[in-house]
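Posting for a labmate who doesn't have an account.
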Amino acid sequence: MEKFSCEIHIDHALDMFVAENEDFPIMDKLVNSEKLSTKCDYCEEQAVYIVSSK
C-alpha cells in the first residue's frame, strides 16, 4: 500500500496508514522526476512524500 502526500498532508497520511495497516510506515521523499506526475492523495497539490509499507 502506498499513499502520496504533499507537505501539508504528511501527518494525515502517516496517521491514516497506521490506522489502516496497524504497522509503522516508511516515509520517503519523492525524487524530482516522480514529483512531476504525482498528485497528493488528499488534495490537488504535487506529492512530495510517499508513505508505504516495509
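Reply:
Got it, the C-alpha cells are right above this. The chain has one domain: 2-52.
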